[in-house]
Amino acid sequence: MDRHLDASGAASAPSAPVNVLGANVYPQGGVSPSSPGPWWHHMVTEELRNVVVAAGITPDRADLTQLTDAILAMIAANAPTSIGQHTIWIPAGAMTARTTGGAAIGIAETAVNKVMLKTLDFDSAAAEYAQFSVRMPKSWNEGVLSAYFVWSNASGTGDVVWGLQAVALSDDDVVDAAFGVASTVTDSVTAAGDLMQSAATAALTVAGAPGANDWVVFQVYRAAVDAADTLAVDARLHGVVIIYTTDAATDA
């Protein structure tokens, strides 16, 4: 749509009329309403045309769908989307300590307010492991992941090096598959008994050939033999947050 242009058109917009009848004028009591004049037609045309322009569409008087296109474009541009980064929280209670070199299952109660803690406790002398699995959403872009660790300690000060590995398994894949290269992050004790949350790891590449709806097995560990790991007591893991990216709004 566009402005009406023909031989009878004016070179400039009409002036707004002076309102002498009040805020609202309706036919009532047998009195005829005012007839729309040049200003009214100009006002309606400009209001509608401005919607088309605001949507980034060039007005075209030969196209009678531009107002509809403009409204739909504005709705689409401002519609909420779930595409982007998302997180999955995995509590320690949902993890399984490895049979070989596994972390210890910990249950503790705080002294004053009796807050119950269910953790996996990772030793300071040797690397210990736990695993969990997630059937990844179909909307996952099958790219790299990252994670951060929520943990605490009962005593002492120092740093802990947490690590994470992952492998994707599709239909008919061998379950005994090798994990990918680990991604680690070092976090410091703020105070014994505090809850700590690490920074996010660097990008974690999932081994295998990730596909839609894959079952991804994660292995979390404490790199106790790393020189940067200096906490001399157990590190209590409360859970891990997995960060993944989607490329679709739904899993349809």
Features:
elongated; 6-stranded antiparallel β-sheet; 252 residues; single chain; alpha+beta; 5-stranded antiparallel β-sheet
Short précis:
The protein has 252 residues and is of the alpha+beta class. The protein has two helices and eleven strands, in the order ααβββββββββββ.
What's the helix and strand layout?
Blueprint: H1 38-54, H2 66-78, E1 85-91, E2 96-97, E3 104-109, E4 116-122, E5 128-135, E6 146-152, E7 159-169, E8 183-188, E9 196-197, E10 215-222, E11 235-245
Antiparallel strand pairs: 1-11, 2-5, 3-4, 4-11, 5-10, 6-9, 6-11, 7-8, 7-10
Helix pairs in contact: 1-2
Record field, number of beta strands:
11
Task: Give the overall shape, derived from the CA principal axes.
Answer: elongated
Major sheet size, sense and barrel closure: 6 strands, antiparallel
Structural class from helices and strands? alpha+beta
From N to C, what is the helix and strand string?
Answer: HHEEEEEEEEEEE
Rounded radius of gyration (Å): 32 Å
The helical percent reads 10-25%
Average per-residue pLDDT, rounded, comes to: 91
Task: Please give the count of helices.
Answer: 2
Oligomer category: single chain
Overview of this protein structure:
The protein is of the alpha+beta class. It contains 2 helices and 11 strands. The protein has helices spanning 38-54, 66-78; strands at 85-91, 96-97, 104-109, 116-122, 128-135, 146-152, 159-169, 183-188, 196-197, 215-222, 235-245. A hairpin with a 6-residue loop joins strand 3 (104-109) and strand 4 (116-122). Helix 1 (38-54) packs across helix 2 (66-78).
